[in-house]
Amino acid sequence: MKSGIAPTLINDPFGDPGLLVPFLLQKQALLFDLGDLSALSNGTLLKVSHAFVSHTHIDHFIGFDRMLRTHFGRNKTLTIFGPENIIQNVKGKLAGFTWNLVELYSESLTIEVVEVREEGLLKATFRAIDRFKLCDEKQEPFEGGVIVDNAVFSVRAAILQHRVPCLGFALEEKPHININKEKLESMKAKPGAWLNELKQAVSQGGQDSLMLTVPFEASGVVTTKDISFAQLKSDLVEIFPGQKIGYVVDSVFNDHNRKRIVKLVESSDIFFCESPFLANEAERGQARFHLTSRQAGTLAREAGVKQLQVFHFSSRHRSCREQFYNEAQDAFEGKYSSTEI
Ligand SMILES: [Zn+2]
Ligand SMILES: [Zn+2]
To answer: Quick one: 185 exposed, middle or buried, by C-beta within 10 A (0-12, 13-18, 19+)?
Structure first.
């Protein structure tokens, strides 16, 4: 397996924007934007641990209620990231329901909200057991754009201009370390905790001289042998670099956004970029604080991404689906002749 994630747009490019990123080795998924989620099953939504909301225009946030409905009554923590005012947006959503019976549920949902501001990350917690009262507000540093970083993935955010602050995101999957099963079988070693030790030593850059005790089983008799980390690493371990995924929606094309987007999504394996307007609608894009197909392609080219996927097309252009893709791809490949972006 070359990659541990399978990013997929939730809807048709003319539908509400949103990206689902399931992790293939864990029962976990990430969601970028909470628009129309009706295409996703409850089972899929229950795997979502973190939701990254670009901004709270209705096509990016109407799905909050569905997430809440699906996760409510479960002993889970759901973390929601969003731009300035997201804590108040979530508070307002939660205030729209009556929570007088929450103490009768044996399991309680916790919603953690992280508001991404230039000056820092403002965090707040809403617990079902406390009738979703806003509590534990605190501010943490916002350094290097990083908003979450754990053993499986990290996400960076950039605050972009869309007449309101709108977040662009870059997801980086951590490299994954596999044990080659065929080689393990041919070595005739007995699988066990030592394989985790080996993986851990690889991820922590262990010393080559480190010795691991490896069990072998023959005719029901288990014997052990000490083998060096260097030997085991070269015989059994495969390391796959993680993928980088860029996600940018609802942003005007200007110098501020251009610099931030290019830096954020630089060298992404796949760059998911909005393109509500066609190349000849640059003026309309400026007036509505959105990108055109050609601008999306230009950003992808400048950022040196490997693959561009445009979406969030304006519904007035339903007959121009291919034109969006072609114009974006031509700009990405540097093919259009005009200097006009
Ligand atoms: Zn939108
Ligand atoms: Zn918007």
So the answer is: exposed
Provide the CB-side half-sphere exposure for 191 (13 A, CA).
10
The neighbour count for residue 182, using CB atoms within 10 Å, is 8
Please give the distance, rounded to the nearest whole angstrom, from the Cα atom of residue 138 to the centre of ligand 1.
29
pLDDT tens per residue across span 157-176: 999 999 999 999 999 999 88
Domain boundaries, the chain: 1-175, 179-240, 254-341
pLDDT below 70 — which residues of the chain? 1-2, 337-340
Ligand 1 centroid, distance to 60 Cα (angstroms): 6
In this predicted structure, what is the pLDDT of residue 324? 97
CATH superfamily, domain 1-175, is Ribonuclease Z/Hydroxyacylglutathione hydrolase-like (3.60.15.10)
Q: What is the DSSP letter of 26?
A: T
Extract the tokens encoding 321.
């689906």
Give the angle subtended at the CA of 66 by the CAs of 96 and 55, to the nearest 5°: 80
Question: Rounded to the nearest 10 degrees, what angle do helices 255-265 and 293-302 cross at?
Answer: 50
pLDDT digits (tens, 9 = 90+) for 229-254: 999 999 999 988 899 999 999 999 99
Please tell me the predicted confidence (pLDDT) of residue 322: 97
- C-alpha of residue 165 to centroid of ligand 2, in Å: 9
Angle, alpha carbons 23-262-117 (nearest 5°): 75
Residues bordering ligand 1, an ion, CB closer than 5 Å: 59, 250
C-alpha of residue 57 to centroid of ligand 2, in Å: 5
